[in-house]
Amino acid sequence: MQFIDLKAQYQASRDKINNRIQTVLDHGQYIMGPEVAELEKALVAYTGAPECITVSSGTEALLIALMALDIRPGDEVITSPFTFAATAEVIALVGATPVFVDVEPDTCNIDASLIEAAITDRTRAIMPVSLYGQIPDMEEINALAERHGLVVIEDAAQSFGASYRGQKSCAVSRIGCTSFFPSKPLGCYGDGGAIFTNNPVLAKIMREIRVHGQEKRYFHTRVGVGGRMDTIQCAVVLAKLETFESEVKARIEAGKRYIAALTGHNKVGLPVVRADRDCVWAQFTIKVDERDRVAAHLQSRGVPTAIHYPVPLHLQPAYSKLSRISGTLANSEELGRRVLSLPMHPFIEAETQAEVVAAVLEAVAA
After folding, report:
1. Is the dihedral of CA 61, 65, 68, 72 positive or negative?
2. For residue 366, what pLDDT band results from cuts at 50, 70 and 90?
3. E strand or H helix at 113, and its extent?
């Protein structure tokens, strides 16, 4: 059993992917080739965001966004502690302070009602994470940011393809950043990412930052990074984008099957999807007591699992002294002790899910 079945996904689009890669090999423009602009145009059409800048990774997307906003030492950025380290990492890399606000226990996304209490005169931005594939309460977060003159950056590394009140992830705030890491809902075959914005001035700045701050060749208007997405990786995403919407629907259906099969079992805490949005299930993550024992039982039955994430960022050695905590982070800490991710991908079959569910119920009953 595969936790994420990238081989099945490749086989389903094999000819399209191979042809796209071969085209790049034939023209030889491996850096900033025509597929880069083609992908950016396609991603704009898919998301509805006015501007797209492809970059070398989801982490680089977040970093370039912060650099474009000129966030620097002394500034603060509010975010969630229950996420992958890259979210806080980029804030620290520009010298700013990550300010952690607790998450909702059912969605695992940042609790929008707690953000305002964390705002100070040093706050410059809010970086909500669309964890596990579901967008948080962006209408409330955007309204709060507007009142306080802040910028919202959606960390959409896990949610590309998800919708919130009729809008696609990456088009629900001033800036949206996503990842094309292979295991993500829309992945390439290496590292890649993209930044989306509704602000043309910011888009121009971010395009310059990704090529070492160049406005034109060898004319550097600002400090930048080597943040370009490789042409071959853009070609892979272009091929996979052709069937992506059907994969999104398959992910949503697979999530519904898991929830239906596990509902009513009080020893299994289920993720909740709010009524005004959907979830693309980058991970399908349950909550259980005695997680290590449950995971070991599943492994013995041939069911792979993962933990996203065992230690919240405010308890990580690298960030414990660099960050500021607003209020209690009790939900994040409890989730770190209890979350367990089950196999999830658009090609998972109902029979396979039934095997997973049976193993889970057997484990929690033991």
Report:
1. negative
2. confident
3. none
Query: Is 107 a domain residue?
Result: yes
- Rounded mean pLDDT of the chain? 98
CA distance 357 to 298: 10
CB–CB of 221/201 below 8 Å?
no
- 34 burial class (0-12, 13-18, 19+ CB within 10 angstroms)? middle
3-state secondary structure at position 154: strand
| Same domain, residue pair 248 and 214 | no
pLDDT value for 289: 97
Considering the domain architecture, whether residues 222 and 129 belong to the same structural domain is answered as yes
Domain that holds residue 290: 244-365
328 and 208 inside one domain: no
pLDDT digits (tens, 9 = 90+) for 208-237: 999 999 999 999 999 999 999 999 999 999
Together in a domain, 237 and 270: no
Contact of 209 with 227, CB cutoff 8 Å: yes
Same domain, 164 and 24: yes
What is the number of domains present in the chain? 2
pLDDT tens profile 290-324: 999 999 999 999 999 999 999 999 999 999 999 99
Please give the pLDDT value at position 44.
98
Question: Are residues 174 and 275 both part of a single domain?
Answer: no
